[in-house]
Design brief:
2 domains, alpha/beta, 10 helices, Spore Coat Polysaccharide Biosynthesis Protein SpsA, Chain A, 30% strand, seven-stranded mixed sheet, UDP N-Acetylglucosamine Acyltransferase, domain 1, binds uridine-diphosphate-N-acetylglucosamine, 19-stranded parallel sheet, binds calcium ion, 37 strands
């Protein structure tokens, strides 16, 4: 356990986020496979705080339910009216005190729920500086190209000590020229914070309790106020609208791909490759352009995915090749080949060295080692053994209009093209089926099943029924071919 383990992390997420123009609460919008508040909670978790409290208000039922799902250890504090960031933190501390945790002693970190790019590393630098300098409060600041809208960091004296944070709306022209801004992230001494929050007033342009006023209050009381400057100002980007949402997604994706590339993944075109935070790679893998890897997708060594794959919760085995494919909840075995143009749905399990080829759809299908389904087929609710070949244009007829049924095909089978396996049905090991068969009855091992109409040729039908037609002449010409002709 780190000596700098915070007593509590408080995440502010009660605001409405009107500029998103959305029925979904702002902090529940997601980037790279995680909600905005989920990113913040994940970074906070890495600090291993004793208490992790999220202040909820707007759409609190939805936000609370989401939090319970992603991190059951999170507590929520309700802020019924959004009376400002200071008021929100007060609600969190009161909730902790009321729940029996008592007044919070030690470091309290405050974050906003809409800053998904913030890293645990930066938070740790903040708490380390806070502890090392013995501060009552340490604010995370950043120097930004455009400070409009942000609270400005006012520094005074020879040592440039932070004396106050002035909100944009309350700032003078001179203060507005300051480019160092308040990120909204702080480390506080818990006891001093609670005292100071009781003294925050609302005589500002928004009539709110500003958390930022705590700095001036603590300083006036003779306590140390410090600042830590973020190395990369983009990390503190707050999301207020969907333009910023896209920007944050691009930045986070860039960061994730950067890490992947440094760990041995060839990303051919980072600009068109999109990954979730939960995606994992082994070294020596290749991702071709236009690919989206989502959820718990894993790509094992020497595998290649893309171009144009969307893989969700899918594992790609070592040396496998997956191209132009959509897969959800599928397992692709080592050395297998999938696509181009395959659709693997949940429950698809491809064994070693299998093939799911072009225009092949699979669902809830267990496909054994070395088995191939090369072309134009639907395989649903099926178990297929090893080293079997499924003919082109085969349909596993799994649905009778009421219920789904299963098909079992053995090992070393050769099924003909254009077969229908009408489930429930079983084809034994080593069996063959004829092309064009509709298999409705079980096929014993080693048999050939033929289930199609007998062919009948009606001689001279065209000459009689379509006399003088091009077809009739073409047929006639075959009879008049001179001796020795080709
Ligand atoms: C705040 C800071 C500003 C800083 C900026 C960084 C204050 C007074 N201002 O301004 O110095 O530069 O963040 O992005 O702190 N919230 C609540 N309850 C409330 C009000 C806000 O939970 O009553 C939450 C919001 O949901 C949001 C966060 O606090 O997650 C920040 O609130 P917001 O209104 O966006 O503050 P800013 O005006 O951006
Ligand atoms: Ca904001």
């Amino acid at each position: 356990m780190s000596a700098n383990r915070p007593a509590a992390v408080v995440v502010l997420a009660a605001g409405e986020g009107t500029r998103m123009k959305s029925a979904t609460p702002k902090v529940l919008h997601s980037i790279c496979g995680r909600s905005l508040v989920g990113h913040v909670v994940a970074a906070a978790r890495e600090l291993d705080p004793e208490h992790l409290v999220v202040v909820v208000g707007h759409a609190r039922e939805q936000v609370t339910a989401h939090l319970a799902e992603i991190d059951p250890g999170v507590r929520t504090a309700v802020q019924h009216e959004q009376n400002g960031t200071g008021h929100a933190v007060r609600m969190a501390l009161e909730e902790l005190a009321a729940s029996g945790a008592g007044p919070v002693e030690g470091t309290v970190v405050v974050l906003c729920g809409d800053t998904p790019l913030l890293t645990a590393e930066t938070l740790r630098r903040l708490t380390d500086a806070h502890t090392a300098d013995g501060n009552a409060v340490t604010v995370l600041t950043a120097v930004v190209p455009d400070a409009t809208g942000y609270g400005r960091i006012v520094r005074e004296g020879a040592d440039g000590a932070v004396t106050a944070i002035v909100e944009h709306k309350d700032a003078t022209e001179e203060q507005r020229a300051i480019t160092e801004i308040n990120s909204g992230v702080f480390a506080f001494d818990g006891r001093l914070l609670a005292d100071a929050l009781g003294k925050v007033r609302t005589d500002n342009s928004q009539g709110e309790e500003y958390l930022t006023d705590v700095l001036g209050i603590l300083r006036a009381a003779g306590h140390r106020v410090g600042a830590a400057v973020a190395g990369d100002h983009r990390e503190i980007l707050g999301i207020n609208n969907r333009v910023q949402l896209a920007e944050a997604r691009r930045l986070l994706n860039e960061r994730l791909l950067h890490e992947a590339m440094l760990s041995g993944v060839t990303v051919v075109d980072p600009a068109t490759t999109w990954v979730d935070v939960t995606v994992t790679f082994e070294p020596d893998t290749v991702v071709h352009p236009g690919s989206q890897l989502q959820g718990a997708t894993h790509v094992a060594t020497n595998a290649e995915v893309g171009p144009n794959c969307t893989l969700k919760d899918t594992s790609v085995g070592a040396g496998a090749r997956v191209s132009n494919t959509v897969a959800d909840g599928a397992q692709v075995g080592e050395g297998s080949s999938v696509g181009p143009f395959a659709y693997l749905r949940p429950g698809t399990k491809l064994g070693l060295k299998t093939k799911a080829g072009t225009f092949v759809e699979m669902k809830n299908a267990d496909v054994g080692e070395g088995t191939k389904v090369p072309h134009l087929s639907y395989v649903g609710d099926a178990t297929i053994g090893e080293y079997t070949n499924i003919g082109a244009a085969t349909v596993f007829v799994n649905y009778d209009g009421v219920a789904k049924h299963a098909t079992t095909i053995g090992s070393h089978c050769r099924t003909g093209a254009d077969n229908m396996f009408v489930a429930p049905v079983t084809v034994g090991d080593g069996a063959y089926t004829a092309a064009g068969s509709v298999i409705t009855k079980d096929v014993p091992p080693g048999s050939l099943a033929v289930a199609r109409g007998q062919q009948r040729n009606i001689e001279g039908w065209v000459a009689r029924k379509r006399p003088g037609s091009a077809a009739a002449q073409a047929a006639l010409a075959t009879r008049e071919e001179p001796e020795g002709g080709q």
